[in-house]
Structures are given as structure tokens and as C-alpha cells.
Design brief:
heterodimer, A: 109 residues, mainly beta, globular, B: 114 residues, seven-stranded mixed sheet, four-stranded antiparallel sheet, 55% strand
Chain lengths: 109, 114
């Protein structure tokens, strides 16, 4: 079957760095997405990785290793507004998105 | 970036009535749109895939007669929750596909059935 795993919840301190991991097993691979979702709102796109390596976009970076079925989202200089759920999603061979359950990130002052 | 507009953002309806939710791609044509449902503290659950000009493809366990999907044009898909019950209360989100690897979300609709 298809499976996306990510931690349920993480806590970090304002100004620090946090890494949210995602491992996946899917039928085919056409890219991995990270979304941010604040409570009660729709997800917003953060990053898309289809090749191995690190993609940096401001305070957020996303890494992919296709051979390991592994990705992480790295958030630097954490701000209180970064408190949200972070969803990992993999696009399979049919271009369908397979969603992880999301990681709730709690930022403490 | 591309814009997808979902309307209404919030709706309260009485049990037994029907509610229509619209999803529009404002600056691109979307041959495929997706409808998701999200329960509190849970991830998105794909309900159905809507293709312009053809019948929607429903995921296992989703009642197609209860959740009517119409994708009448390249920029509009609608989800109608028929004979709504309190257990249908949820957050419904659409997304519109611009290319194979690009999909954009609407703002979501909070449905409360009383």
C-alpha cells in the first residue's frame, strides 16, 4: 500500500531551527510537496521537490532523497506565526497526491 | 500565483437541506479539480476527482448520490451536499490542477449542519 509517515507533533523555540521529517512508500513518484496549514484554513504551498537535494526558499528549505524515500522540511529563525500543521504529500505515478497526516508544530517563546 | 476561489467560506444549514459549494479557478483553466474533506486535527481526505465534461470519480466510501459534483466548465466545479446531516459538518476544500504537478487550493468551506 501507499504510506506517508511524519511525526504527529513537534515543539520548538522561537528563533531556533526545526526539521520535520517525512518518509514515504508510494506506487511511483512524481514529486513531493510540503504545505503549511493554519487551523481552520486551507493549506498553502511551501515547496516542491522532484530531484534529490536541498531546495532553499528564504527561511524554509526542503530536502529530498528518492532512494531513501525521505524528505525533510527545515524551518530556520522560527517565528510564532510558524505555529501550524505541516503536511507532506507525494504525487504518485497517476499524478494523485498521497497525503501524510500532518505535523503540528508548536512554537514557544 | 494562480488563484482558486471557493465559496462560501462558511455555511450553516439545517439538517435535511442541501448546500452547494463552488470552486473557481480565476486565472487558469482546470480540466481537473479535486474535492477534499478534513476533520479536525486530521489530514485531507480526497473525496472525488472532478473532470470537466465527464462524471466525477469518487473515492471508496464516498456516497456519490450524497455528494454531487458538477464540473460544467474549465473554471468551475461545484460540490452539493444533499440532505445534509450533522455528521456532514466538516471543512471542505477544493483544489484545481493547472498542470500535472501544480494544484492550487481554494480557501475552504466550513460547513455546520444543525
Amino acid at each position: 500500500g501507499q504510506n506517508i509517515d511524519q511525526p504527529t507533533e513537534m515543539t520548538a523555540t522561537e528563533g531556533a531551527i526545526v526539521q520535520i521529517n517525512c518518509t514515504y512508500q508510494t506506487s511511483g513518484f512524481n514529486g513531493l510537496f510540503w504545505y503549511q496549514q493554519h487551523a481552520g484554513e486551507a493549506p498553502t504551498f511551501l515547496s516542491y521537490n522532484v530531484l534529490d537535494g536541498l531546495e532553499e526558499k528564504g527561511r524554509f528549505s526542503s530536502f529530498l532523497s528518492r532512494s531513501k524515500g525521505y524528505s525533510y522540511l527545515l524551518l530556520k529563525e522560527l517565528q510564532m506565526k510558524d505555529s501550524a500543521s505541516y503536511l507532506c504529500a507525494v504525487m504518485d505515478s497517476n499524478y494523485q497526491l498521497i497525503w501524510g497526516a500532518g505535523t503540528k508544530l508548536i512554537i514557544k517563546p | 500565483g494562480a488563484v482558486v476561489s471557493q465559496h462560501p467560506s462558511r455555511v450553516i444549514c439545517k439538517s435535511g437541506t442541501s448546500v452547494k459549494i463552488e470552486c473557481r479557478s480565476l486565472d487558469f483553466q482546470a480540466t481537473t479539480m479535486f474535492w477534499y474533506r478534513q476533520f479536525p486535527k486530521q489530514s485531507l481526505m480526497l473525496m472525488a476527482t472532478s473532470n470537466e465534461g465527464s462524471k466525477a470519480t469518487y473515492e471508496q466510501g464516498v456516497e456519490k448520490d450524497k455528494f454531487l459534483i458538477n464540473h460544467a466548465s474549465l473554471t468551475l466545479s461545484t460540490l452539493t451536499v444533499t440532505s445534509a446531516h450533522p455528521e456532514d459538518s466538516s471543512f471542505y476544500i477544493c483544489s484545481a490542477r493547472r498542470t500535472d504537478t501544480e494544484a492550487f487550493f481554494g480557501q475552504g468551506t466550513r460547513l455546520t449542519v444543525v
